[in-house]
Amino acid sequence: MLEASLEKQGADPYILFQLGQSYFGLADYSLALPYFEQALSMDVNEKEEYVQTMVESYGYCLLNLQLSARALELEGIYHIFSKTADFVFLMGLIYMNNAMFHQAIHEFLKAVSITKYSVEGVNSYKAYYNIGVIYECMGDMGNAVKYYDKCGDYTPAIERKNAISPYSASFKSLKNGTTASSNNRAIFSSSLSLIAIPSSFNFSFNACLSVRIFSVLITSVVLL
User: Fold this and answer.
1) Of 74, 90, 168, 192, which is most buried, counting CB atoms within 10 Å of its CB?
2) pTM for the whole thing?
3) Is the CB of residue 191 less than 8 Å from the CB of residue 136?
């Protein structure tokens, strides 16, 4: 039906958005992406709610398709869409995927300070949780626990806090430059599916995203 409307009316950004969002909801990101790209190349009103949603879906599409470097192009429209915690949270994930961890932490902290949001958790426990994960994998157990505590009764944060306490010494030795032991590697391996992502975006790439993030973190920590 939407395809027929598009053929009859010609290129219309809202119809293109609906088509893209339909495929996005089915986790068919390779088909969703061209519709978002075409719509965003047109003259759209950034104040329209659907445009904000489309920009965010476009960014998540790029992450799902492992086009994280390309997703950094959203920095060019940051000043327009960063009024919502959802977009700022997305930028945090984009920076994580590009191994820009300090920038990621900054964005997650900024997301917490923004009251306008659509998806629960992006300006509270999910942002804090992702910061905790970054600090945990960098070997900073103090800050990891600090941000897991801020998540309240968010189950993944409670589980991570309980899991890291026996390994604090191992992380500390990694941070100090000692050779990674089998215990160290086991800690990182157990962390491969940690990152919190808004459930409304129907992600299937949690493990893939985390593997990229943690493989970079492991390399960074071991080389220190």
Assistant:
1) 90
2) 0.76
3) yes
